[in-house]
């Protein structure tokens, strides 16, 4: 285990290439090293998110694909934090999503708490098990395969 300090948006922006309106992680509140490293990130879902203008104006619901993207971004932060051999802040692409499940809708005012656990690393690819919660209830889960960009 390593000493952990909250990772703020400024540091997240050093670790990920995403920017508004597509940066979907506000803060990382936990990071555990070990055989299966884990990061926990949060996204405060507000009514002024641009996607709510069309999804859906009279019944705003966060799109499931954006929940998956938010979980993948937490996995990207974790991958960059765990990257000990090369430069942090590398671009990491989502390659595959398996076993995606949605249990509950996410609406304005919710705080999405996302947990990404690194299951395996093979060459420049990583497999992550991801879950998203609101008020302690599981709202979504997926297995996400990612790959580091080659330059």
Q: Would you give an account of this structure?
A:
The protein is an alpha+beta fold. The chain has a single domain (9-148), classed as Thiol Ester Dehydrase, Chain A. 17% of the residues lie in helices and 38% in strands. The chain is built from 2 helices and 6 strands. It has helices at 9-15, 64-82; strands at 27-32, 38-44, 92-102, 111-122, 125-134, 137-148. Strands 1-2-4-5-6-3 form a 6-stranded antiparallel sheet, with helices on one face. A hairpin with a 5-residue loop joins β1 and β2. The longest helix has 19 residues, at 64-82. It is globular. The termini are far apart.
Q: How are the SSEs ordered, and which strands pair?
A:
Layout: H1 9-15, E1 27-32, E2 38-44, H2 64-82, E3 92-102, E4 111-122, E5 125-134, E6 137-148
From the coordinates shown, what is the CATH architecture? Roll
What gap, in angstroms, lies between the N and C termini? Answer: 32 Å
- So what's the overall shape? globular
Low-confidence stretches at least 5 residues in length (pLDDT < 50)?
Answer: none
CATH fold annotation:
Thiol Ester Dehydrase, Chain A
CATH homologous superfamily identity: Hotdog Thioesterase
Helix content: 10-25%
Q: Tell me the major beta sheet.
A: 6 strands, antiparallel
Order of helices and strands: HEEHEEEE
Round the Cα radius of gyration to an integer and report it: 15 Å
Strand content: 35-45%
Q: Strands across the major sheet, in which order? A: 1-2-4-5-6-3
């Amino acid at each position: 285990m390593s000493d952990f300090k909250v990772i703020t948006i400024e540091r997240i922006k050093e670790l990920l290439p995403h920017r508004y309106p597509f940066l979907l992680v506000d803060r990382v509140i936990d990071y555990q090293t070990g055989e299966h490293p884990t990061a926990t990130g949060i996204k405060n879902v507000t009514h002024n998110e641009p996607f709510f203008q069309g999804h859906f104006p009279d019944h705003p619901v966060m799109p499931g694909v954006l929940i998956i993207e938010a979980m993948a971004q937490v996995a990207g932060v974790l991958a960059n934090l765990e990257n000990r051999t090369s430069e942090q802040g590398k671009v990491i692409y989502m390659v595959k999503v398996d076993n995606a499940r949605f249990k509950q809708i996410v609406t304005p005012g919710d705080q999405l708490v996302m947990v990404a656990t690194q299951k395996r690393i093979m060459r420049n690819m990583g497999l992550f098990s991801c879950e998203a919660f609101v008020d302690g209830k599981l709202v979504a889960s997926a297995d996400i395969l990612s790959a580091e960009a080659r330059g």
